[in-house]
C-alpha cells in the first residue's frame, strides 16, 4: 500500500460497529473524490493491515459498497471504484442498521419527513385515507395485544399517513425504509417482563392513536406535534437502551 493509500485510511476509528464504520469511511472517500472512478482499492490484506480489522469486516464493508453501486469487483483483480459512483437511488438496507446509533439516524431522518407529511395529511386526507389508516391502526393494535412486535403493522400505518398527503413522492421515499425502519432485533421485547410488555404496548397504541385522531380531525398543528412526540419518544427509548448496554 502506498503512502497515498495509507492517507485514505488514516482517519479510520474503530467504532463499536466496525463494518459500518469502515463502509462509511470508504463511502465518504469515494464521494469526496479521494478514491476516483476506476481506481483500484487496496487489497483486503492491505486494508486489514492499515485499519486493524478482520478480513470478515473488510469483506462485509466492501459488500455493502457493492450493494450501493459504489464499487465493482473483477475476478482476480480486486475491487474498483465504479466509473459512475454517484448513487442513482437512495435506499436503506438491513446491513445499514447494525447498531442503535444507526437506528437513531434513521429516526432522525424520518422525523424530518414525517413531521411535514403528517401536517399535509391532516390538510388533504380523504375519507378513503381515514378508512385505510383505521384499518392499519386496528391491525397494529391487534399485533400488540397479541404480544407481537408489530413491525410490519407499524410500517403500514406510518406509510398510510404518507399516502394521505396526496403526494406520491412521500410514499416512494418511505418505501426505501421498508419495515426495517425499527429492526426487530432492537425491540428487545423478549427481555421485558409481562408488565413491561403491557406498558410498552399501551404506550405504542396511545401514541399512534393520537396521530390518527389529529389527522382524522384535520388538526394540522396537532398532527405535527403527535408525530414529532412519537418519534422523539422512540428515539429516547433507543438512547436509553444504547446507554444501558455501554
TrEMBL record:
Record keywords, A-Z: DNA-binding, Transcription, Transcription regulation
Domain of life per record: Bacteria
Gene3D superfamilies: GntR ligand-binding domain-like, Winged helix-like DNA-binding domain superfamily/Winged helix DNA-binding domain
InterPro entries according to UniProt: GntR_C (IPR011711), TF_FadR/GntR_C (IPR008920), Tscrpt_reg_HTH_GntR (IPR000524), WH-like_DNA-bd_sf (IPR036388), WH_DNA-bd_sf (IPR036390)
Coiled-coil intervals: none
Cross-referenced PROSITE patterns: HTH_GNTR
Domain HTH gntR-type: 16-84
Protein name: FadR family transcriptional regulator
Organism: Rhizobium changzhiense
Amino acid at each position: 500500500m502506498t503512502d497515498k493509500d495509507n492517507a485514505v485510511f488514516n482517519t479510520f476509528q474503530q467504532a463499536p460497529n466496525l463494518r459500518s464504520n469502515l463502509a462509511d469511511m470508504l463511502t465518504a472517500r469515494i464521494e469526496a473524490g479521494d478514491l476516483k472512478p476506476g481506481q483500484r482499492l487496496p487489497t483486503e490484506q492491505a486494508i486489514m493491515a492499515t485499519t486493524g480489522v478482520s478480513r470478515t469486516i473488510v469483506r462485509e464493508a466492501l459488500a455493502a459498497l457493492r450493494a450501493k453501486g459504489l464499487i465493482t469487483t473483477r475476478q482476480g483483480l480486486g475491487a474498483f471504484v465504479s466509473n459512475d459512483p454517484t448513487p442513482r437511488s437512495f435506499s436503506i438496507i438491513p446491513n445499514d442498521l447494525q447498531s442503535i446509533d444507526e437506528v437513531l439516524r434513521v429516526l432522525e431522518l424520518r422525523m424530518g419527513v414525517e413531521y411535514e407529511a403528517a401536517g399535509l395529511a391532516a390538510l388533504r386526507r380523504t375519507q378513503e385515507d381515514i378508512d385505510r389508516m383505521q384499518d392499519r391502526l386496528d391491525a397494529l393494535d391487534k399485533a400488540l395485544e397479541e404480544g407481537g412486535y408489530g413491525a410490519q403493522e407499524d410500517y403500514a400505518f406510518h406509510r398510510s399517513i404518507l399516502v394521505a398527503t396526496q403526494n406520491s413522492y412521500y410514499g416512494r421515499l418511505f418505501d426505501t425504509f421498508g419495515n426495517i425502519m425499527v429492526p426487530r432485533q432492537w425491540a428487545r421485547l423478549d427481555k421485558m417482563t409481562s408488565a413491561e410488555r403491557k406498558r410498552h404496548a399501551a404506550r405504542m397504541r396511545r401514541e399512534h392513536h393520537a396521530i390518527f385522531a389529529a389527522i382524522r380531525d384535520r388538526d394540522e398543528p396537532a398532527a405535527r406535534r403527535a408525530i414529532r412526540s412519537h418519534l422523539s419518544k422512540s428515539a429516547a427509548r433507543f438512547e436509553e437502551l444504547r446507554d444501558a448496554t455501554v
